[in-house]
Amino acid sequence: MSAKGVKCLDRGRGSRYSWVVTKLQRNGDEVVRQQQGRGHQPSAPWRWSEYLAQVGVLEFVTRWAGHALVLILIGAALWFLRQSDLPRLLALQPQPQVALAAEMGEATPAPSAEQTVSLPPWKPAAPAAQGVARKISLRTDVPSRPREKVIQYTVQKGDTVFGIAEKFGLQPETILWSNYDVLADDPHRLRPGQKLNILPVDGTYYQWHKGDSLRVVAKFFGVSPEEIVDFPANDLPPDTDPDHPQIKAGTWLVVPGGHRQFVSWSAPQIPRSNPAVASILGPGSCGKVYEGPIGTGTFIWPTTLHYLSGYDYSPQINHYGIDIAGKLGYPVYAVDSGVVVYAGWNNWGYGNVVVIDHGNGWQSLYAHLSRILVSCGQAVYQGDMIGSIGSTGRSTGPHLHFELRHEKYGKVNPWNFLP
Questions:
Q1: What's the number of CA atoms in the CB half-sphere (13 Å) around residue 264?
Q2: Does residue 205 have a pLDDT over 60?
Q3: Nearest 5°: phi and psi at 148?
Q4: For the chain, does the N or the C end have fewer beta carbons within 10 angstroms?
Q5: Contact 253, 234 (CB under 8 A)
Q6: Neighbours of 330 (CB within 10 A)
Q7: Residues with Cβ < 8 Å from 106, sequence gap 6 or more?
């Protein structure tokens, strides 16, 4: 048997020998031989590897030992996963395909009964140490609902028709229309302590009379019978017959959206040719036909003050004049030349009144005077003093109620004609 080797001998101080490794190669097999020096023995693993190499199975055993080690590591990993919550947490994550479909706007298939996920038991979160605590409130805020019933309001000092209407979200005319028995369509009749009906909506308030027809009443106020029947505050059956309703006399009905003409409480047009038509207004009417100066058609201010102290020109509350400020006794002047056709007391709330006919279609009215300085039929000229400011009649304080009217245009806004 031939062999090829290299033999190394290393001698040191004290004649110590080291290991000599001889490498033999025959037919592709490798054999490692170790020679023992003095004072040292090889370890047990090394002797086993030397033995396996001598018998030719070292490579086979090494390969299968590596495979066994991989299998042991895989088994250990599976055991670890089973003992932990990692699979449950991974199951909660959305599938990549589903998430991609959601981003692309595609329909996501519904999970089947087999695709169930067991969630970990719920544990309440610990309260934050610095959180904001919610306090218990025994008060419950109930949203406001539209009012359906008619209520009563007691007039307070300083109230006006406009102010009361604004307080309840209504139009001023609704206050007058629903309280004719108290105010008679006259805003100057308003007094502290009066009880006023306040409707839930804009409209009129009508007291039913025996023999009334619901169809006729609805037509008078410009609404349909169904609007009156359907309004909750009226408590009428839905099948109420418009022509023969079974409504008890004296019943008050809300007419939602209803309207009517105001009953005029101001002085009518009093022509100088027949001033007696004003006799219905009171003892200040004049009974004879008069002739006199003709006005120019331009006007001056009737008082020394030129601002309001009361109601403005407001047809919506049946107030067709302006209440000009002034103190008791301040002079009142004729705004244009003409003839006096009314001078005296007015029974409809104006107190002491003077009416001047200007002969050109215009008339001017001065009310609530403390004294009158002219008489029936007297000719007056622009700027003449005809009386003094007062608070007679239905008045809440000294002021001048002033009106301008024309035989063609009716009661006009004085602001449009005063300088």
A1: 10
A2: yes
A3: -115, -15
A4: N
A5: yes
A6: 18
A7: none
Binned at pLDDT 50, 70 and 90, residue 256 comes out as very high
Residue type, 377: G
DSSP state of 135: P
> Mean pLDDT in the chain?
79
Q: In degrees rounded to 5, what are phi and psi of residue 218?
A: -65, -40
Report the distance separating Cα 412 and Cα 321, nearest Å.
8
Residue with tokens 């001998």: 9
Non-local CB neighbours of 57 within 8 Å, separated by 6+ positions: none
Angstrom distance (rounded) from CA 80 to CA 95? 24
Q: What are phi and psi of 368, to 5 degrees?
A: 70, 25
Between residues 83 and 252, the one the model is more confident about: 252
Of residues 60 and 17, more confidently modeled: 60
d(CA 154, CA 80): 85
Distance of alpha carbon 59 from alpha carbon 108, whole angstroms? 55
Nearest to 402 by CA among 334, 330, 293, 323: 323
If one compares 190 and 6, the residue with the highest pLDDT of the two is 190
Domain extents in the chain:
151-256, 275-416
Token pair 């290991």 is found at: 19
User: Which H helix or E strand runs over 64?
Assistant: helix 58-83
With CA atoms as reference, report the closest residue to 258 among 336, 298, 205, 193.
205
87: CB partners within 8 A, 6+ apart: 81
Instruction: Report strand pairing: 322-325 vs 399-406.
Output: antiparallel
Half-sphere exposure of 372 (CA within 13 A, CB side): 22
Cβ neighbours of 368 (radius 10 Å) = 30
Yes or no: domain 275-416 corresponds to CATH 2.30.40.10: no
**310-329 per-residue burial string, b: 16 or more CB within 10 A, e: under 16:** bbebbeebbbbbbbbbbeee
**Half-sphere CA count of 12, side-chain side, radius 13 A:** 6
- Spatial distance between the Cα atoms of 120 and 325, rounded to a whole number of angstroms: 84
Euclidean distance between CA atoms 188 and 185, whole angstroms? 9
